[in-house]
Amino acid sequence: MNDSDTTVEDLKSRVRAFCEERDWDRFHDPKELAIGMATESAELLEIFRFKNADQCREAVADPERGRHIRDELSDVLYFVLRFAQMNGIDLSEALDAKIGDNGRKYPADRVRGRNEKYNEYKDI
User: Fold this and answer.
1) Which domain holds residue 35?
2) Which of 29, 39, 69, 80 has the most CB atoms within 10 Å of its CB?
3) 79: closest CA among 91, 67, 68?
């Protein structure tokens, strides 16, 4: 299984089957799944704490540390997929809408190469 031949729906179905085999639906309300996302995101972030950009890239490229990073990233994805699956959220639609919103907040001709938040940038 790889990204080029797997759909988001395939991933959501795998997560659903995994959880149903374990009778975990009752533990996966929106609050618990959101906590799971935050907790796993923090574990991913912890790997990079006090590292500069080069050290972060080295960690990703390192076989052992890279595996740990992929594991934590997969944990985040698991909770995102499970949240969407349990709450009837179409992630492709949600992402498309959000990119549209962000495109209006961050018009490319005004923000290209800049990193200010939409309410902070000023025209040059």
Assistant:
1) 7-111
2) 80
3) 91
